[in-house]
Prior knowledge:
The protein is built from 1 helix and 7 strands. It has one helix spanning 71-83; strands at residues 2-4, 7-11, 17-20, 31-38, 53-56, 61-68, 88-94.
Amino acid sequence: MTAAIGMLFEYGPRGFARFCSSELCPMDTPHVYEIRIEGHLADRWSDWFDRLAICNDPNGETSLTGSLADQAALYGVLSKIHSLNLVLISVLRLSTNRAEDVY
């Protein structure tokens, strides 16, 4: 999701952007996110990252995936990534409805 002059855009699995108004994408509802970082993390970090699932990929990246309560929780996780000096690769809000994946 990207902010541009007061508008929010959500990127689907094929990279297409779609507009999200505050009515369509409220910031105070839980969503599932995939956050990719450079390097590997041990599973013990899961609790510190709001119980997100940690998956270390063979390409040297780690994905943190799971539901976050709201935008504040997302920013909290991103702040922790910053505090550890980890390199952020991407943040994706995943669709929970497969019909939304088709554009």
